[in-house]
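Task card 7
Instruction: Convert sequence to structure tokens.
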Amino acid sequence: MLDVAKARACLLSNLLVLPGLGSVIASRAVGWAQITLAVLGFCASGTGAVWSLGWILKNREAMGEGIVELSGLWLPLGVAVSGLALFAAAWLWGLFTGLNLLHEAKRAATTPPPL
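Output:
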């Protein structure tokens, strides 16, 4: 059983360090799924951002002249935005799991021990 201080630490770990880390510390198996989702989202957003930057640098001169077709930029931007959405989903999932841990710890702290 978690005490309130450890539950707060788990919540903060989920929010500020890595979504799912606090859940794993609290022995919740769901934390591994949260970590996986967060890492996939981070990698996808980084890949999409680098891919977009490469496209922009490659087409910089044509963009200045206004003759470039922007359709080649949609896929890299889509990958980046999708990665951000995955990471945001993992962060929100970690938030709700951390708040649930905190609620359970507070409820256990106020429940008198059995006689």
